[in-house]
């Protein structure tokens, strides 16, 4: 009886181990949709860590610029990583680039991929149309992931029939440098999918953190309200302080100037950039898009209220460093 029991236990244990081994998908082949800064960065780090990558965008011109940008970025990495062995650096660049192919037809390349990472414009309708189409051509095991920083992952996943194989993979710019990746699990995301993506991010040399499908995930949920509160400090109405009859009164626009707010957060909190510097770096249109989206979801939340001064700047196409002017001027 003891022998039978031991055999049964071994059988169950072996079965459980085998079951566990097939739970995760080992990602080897990656398709990245979108050849912008984020998509190119994701393609670069995936290729540099032994994955085969297909980078997809709408035109060959866009893809040519993307590959050129990837090559330039790789040479910077190689110069630092192989400072004492330039030849090895050149080999690293050539090998990584050889792992990246390009295509203008996403549907034709997803049939053999393990993971599709979408990094296109932050437009829910466009993302839904893309994933709905790819869902028809991708293999059964293929995991879909969106790099969105502001849209609800569930709303994107619902455009497909593979909600259990859909999650968020939020990288940070610049992707080759920033170590963090937020892995977003929706209520429908399977544990198998989640664990597979966590393992994938680790193979990229990144540090994954997990979060539910909540607005802004972790970083933006904390960062964007901080940026908006900085704007509110600056955009308060004029107020008069002191006794104007005694000549001691003075007027102040806002609770503090944007320059002083930036200085305070850099010297007092140890931040590398002040909130207004960061807003201009990120792009005021990007921040406005995020806040507007959150405001639609929860209009009564005081953290999600829009900013009149930021809206005005966006209307005037003063979007920050990329346009030469935002809260500050850049020349």
UniProtKB/TrEMBL annotation:
Binding residue positions for CoA: 73, 80, 149
Site residues, Important for catalytic activity: 170
Recorded metabolic or biological pathway in which this protein acts: Lipid metabolism; fatty acid beta-oxidation
Name under which the protein is recorded: Hydroxyacyl-coenzyme A dehydrogenase, mitochondrial
Xref: SUPFAM superfamilies: 6-phosphogluconate dehydrogenase C-terminal domain-like, NAD(P)-binding Rossmann-fold domains
Keywords: Acetylation, Differentiation, Fatty acid metabolism, Hydroxylation, Lipid metabolism, Mitochondrion, NAD, Oxidoreductase, Spermatogenesis, Transit peptide
UniProt function note: Mitochondrial fatty acid beta-oxidation enzyme that catalyzes the third step of the beta-oxidation cycle for medium and short-chain 3-hydroxy fatty acyl-CoAs (C4 to C10). Plays a role in the control of insulin secretion by inhibiting the activation of glutamate dehydrogenase 1 (GLUD1), an enzyme that has an important role in regulating amino acid-induced insulin secretion. Plays a role in the maintenance of normal spermatogenesis through the reduction of fatty acid accumulation in the testes.
Gene Ontology CC terms: mitochondrial matrix
Entries under Pfam families matching the protein: 3HCDH, 3HCDH_N
Keyword Oxidoreductase included in the entry's annotation: yes
Binding site for NAD(+): 34-39, 57, 122, 127, 149, 173, 322
Key word Nucleotide-binding present: no
Family: Belongs to the 3-hydroxyacyl-CoA dehydrogenase family.
Reactions listed under catalytic activity: (3S)-hydroxyhexadecanoyl-CoA + NAD(+) = 3-oxohexadecanoyl-CoA + NADH + H(+); (3S)-3-hydroxybutanoyl-CoA + NAD(+) = acetoacetyl-CoA + NADH + H(+); a (3S)-3-hydroxyacyl-CoA + NAD(+) = a 3-oxoacyl-CoA + NADH + H(+); (3S)-hydroxydecanoyl-CoA + NAD(+) = 3-oxodecanoyl-CoA + NADH + H(+)
Subcellular localization: Mitochondrion matrix
Domain 3-hydroxyacyl-CoA dehydrogenase NAD binding: 29-214
Quaternary data: Homodimer. Interacts with GLUD1; this interaction inhibits the activation of glutamate dehydrogenase 1 (GLUD1).
EC annotation from Swiss-Prot or TrEMBL: 1.1.1.35
Biological process terms in GO annotation: cell differentiation; fatty acid beta-oxidation; spermatogenesis
Annotated GO MF terms: (3S)-3-hydroxyacyl-CoA dehydrogenase (NAD+) activity; NAD+ binding
Gene that this sequence comes from: HADH
Domain 3-hydroxyacyl-CoA dehydrogenase C-terminal: 252-330
């Amino acid at each position: 009886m003891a022998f039978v029991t031991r055999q049964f236990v071994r059988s169950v244990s072996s079965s459980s181990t085998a079951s566990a081994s097939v739970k995760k998908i080992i990602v080897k082949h990656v398709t990245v949709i979108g050849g912008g800064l984020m998509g190119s960065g994701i393609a670069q780090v995936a290729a540099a860590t032994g994955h085969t990558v297909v980078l997809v965008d709408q035109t060959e011109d866009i893809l040519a610029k993307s590959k050129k940008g990837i090559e330039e970025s790789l040479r910077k990495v190689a110069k630092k990583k192989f400072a004492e062995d330039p030849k090895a650096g050149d080999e690293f660049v050539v090998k990584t680039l050889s792992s990246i192919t390009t295509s203008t037809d996403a549907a034709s390349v997803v049939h053999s991929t393990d993971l599709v990472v979408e990094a296109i414009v932050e437009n829910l309708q466009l993302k839904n149309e893309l994933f709905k189409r790819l869902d028809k051509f991708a293999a059964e095991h293929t995991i879909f992931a969106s790099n969105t920083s502001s849209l609800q992952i569930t709303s994107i996943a619902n455009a497909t029939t593979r909600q259990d194989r859909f999650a968020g993979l939020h990288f940070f710019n610049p992707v080759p440098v920033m170590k963090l990746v937020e892995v977003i699990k929706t209520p429908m995301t399977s544990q198998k999918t989640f664990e597979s993506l966590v393992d994938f991010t680790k193979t990229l040399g990144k540090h994954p953190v997990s979060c539910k499908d909540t607005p802004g995930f972790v970083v933006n949920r904390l960062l964007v309200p901080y940026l908006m509160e900085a704007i509110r400090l600056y955009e308060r109405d004029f107020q008069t302080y002191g006794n104007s009859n005694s000549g001691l009164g003075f007027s102040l626009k806002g609770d503090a100037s944007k320059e002083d707010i930036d200085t305070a957060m850099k010297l007092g909190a140890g931040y590398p950039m002040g909130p207004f510097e960061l807003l201009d770096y990120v792009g005021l249109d990007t921040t406005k898009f995020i806040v507007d989206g959150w405001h639609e979801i929860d209009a009564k939340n005081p953290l999600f209220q829009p900013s009149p001064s930021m809206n005005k700047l966006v209307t005037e196409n003063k979007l920050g460093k990329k346009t030469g002017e935002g809260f500050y001027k850049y020349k």
